[in-house]
Design brief:
Radius of gyration: 22 Å
Helix content: 25-40%
Number of helices: 5
Shape: extended
Distance between the termini: 68 Å
Bound molecules: protoporphyrin IX containing FE
Strand content: 5-15%
Order of helices and strands: HHHEEHH
Structural class: mainly alpha
Strand order of the largest sheet: 1-2
């Protein structure tokens, strides 16, 4: 029984590291977020935006925004950990920012190749000149 006026605190970090729902929780496994896995989770097992009546109203917007930002950046840039960057250590604040930040390197993708890859559904003679246009933009 929960005593009257008891204060209850939920820790999403702990829920989301429960190996019953998230096996090997420290492993980076994007497949965890596929709809077929999500639909097997009990309600409130995954609560980055909380749940119930005070659920984050920016939930859908935040996910869409992050997806668009990642897709836009990664179409044009490659990213990796900088030399000497170890495993990030979380700091227990309101959120869990990495202590001291995370040093990355970014490098431009070969835009012409990327554009031609996107364009391969067209027969060879009908491919657009989007790769050349993107290269021209980058030269400015
Ligand atoms: C990754 C991005 C975000 C995360 C992880 C997040 C997370 C959360 C969480 C956990 C809560 C519940 C706090 C509580 O238990 O009282 C919350 C509430 C809220 N969030 Fe977000 N949020 C995000 C983005 C946004 C955005 C983009 C907006 C607005 C455009 C937003 C607006 C709100 C509002 C207004 C509440 C209060 C809802 C209420 O108390 O009725 N959030 N958010």
């Amino acid at each position: 029984m929960v005593p009257r006026n008891a204060r209850i605190q939920l820790f999403p970090y702990i829920c989301q590291h429960d190996p019953r729902w998230f096996p090997e929780p420290e492993v980076f496994d994007p497949a965890r977020f596929l709809p077929e896995h999500q639909s097997t989770l009990p309600q409130f097992a995954y609560i980055p935006f909380d749940g119930g009546p005070r659920v984050c109203i920016g939930n859908t917007f935040a996910i869409m925004e992050m997806t668009l930002v990642a897709a836009t950046l990664l179409q044009n840039l490659k990213v990796g950990l900088a030399v000497g960057q170890g495993t990030a250590k979380p700091v227990a604040l309101m959120s869990l920012p990495p202590k001291g930040g995370v040093r990355l390197w970014w490098t431009r993708r070969n835009v012409q190749d990327a554009a031609l890859n996107l364009d391969t559904r067209l027969p060879r003679g009908q491919r657009s000149d989007v790769g050349r246009q993107m290269t021209d933009c980058n030269a400015q």
